[in-house]
Amino acid sequence: xxxxxxxxxxxxxxxxxxxxxxxxxxxxxxxxxxxxxxxxxxxxxxxxxxxxxxxxxxxxxxxxxxxxxxxxxxxxxxxxxxxxxxxxxxxxxxxxxxxxxxxxxxxxxxxxxxxxxxxxxxxxxxxxxxxxxxxxxxxxxxxxxxxxxxxxxxxxx
Length: 157
Hints:
This protein is of the alpha/beta class and 157 residues long.
């Protein structure tokens, strides 16, 4: 079973706790899951870290060349580089720079490489093409099961 992730880049602490608790139950230490991630800040890196800690393998789908420069914080870029190096496979979409089209293409490629999608998502529309809602919609049209991880009443920034 190959698990993918999509989700928001800035997560409230209660959402981080919700996602980690869920993954700890369904992908426990030693379960050796196969995870697919775009390695964006937030949900993507959180999931990738969990997959590796559970003894799993990580497959990365990057939206474009130079993607790390689009990450929000220095620690996110450092984590990105560590996770990218730890990945068993890295695929880079054929885009020269970050763009909504590159993010959408990477999200769709991620869905095409997984059997089940975790969405750390507030259920609201995407703020730009290729956002979490677009990836969830694509997964559902492809018949992929989607598990939404969010706490009712929590609003993202």
